Amino acid sequence: MTATIEKVVLPPIPAKRYFTIGEVSELCGVKPHVLRYWEQEFTQLRPVKRRGNRRYYQHHEVLLIRRIRELLYEQGFTINGARNRLDSHGGAQREADEREEAEAPVVTTSMASVDVDQLRKELLHVIDLLGH
């Protein structure tokens, strides 16, 4: 019996700077506890930690998590194998990630539909993250 592995279609990554662990979980199709485990196994994965040890992932880390997911779940690599693959193909993968990012649909909002209160909350949140 042979197992067939289907490639999962993941949602586009919104154009924003920081993502919570819950958002990354949904964007990458991986449970939060798995993300926390992968942080221990993959040194390239270092989310910013703020108040109460809350994690905030940047766009490049979301792309990295998607790559790790693909190596482990779709290509069948072990953790060690995926780690070695990322180390040996880092430059080539970054180029592929940049191509994927360039081809990905850009999520934009017209100014007419901007929720000013929500925008204010997000700006205050970013200022808080930056420590000002």
Automatic annotation (TrEMBL):
Record GO terms (molecular function): DNA binding; DNA-binding transcription factor activity
Keyword annotations of the record: DNA-binding
Keyword Iron-sulfur applies: no
Domain HTH merR-type: 18-88
Record-linked InterPro entries: DNA-bd_dom_put_sf, MerR-type_HTH_dom, MerR_fam
Stretch list, region Disordered: 84-104
Ranges of Basic and acidic residues composition bias in the record: 84-97
Pfam family, one: MerR_1
PROSITE patterns listed in its UniProt record: HTH_MERR_2
The keyword Protein biosynthesis is assigned to this record: no
Annotated PANTHER family: BLL5018 PROTEIN, REDOX-CYCLING DRUG-SENSING TRANSCRIPTIONAL ACTIVATOR SOXR
Stated name of the protein: HTH merR-type domain-containing protein
Organism expressing this protein natively: Paraburkholderia solisilvae
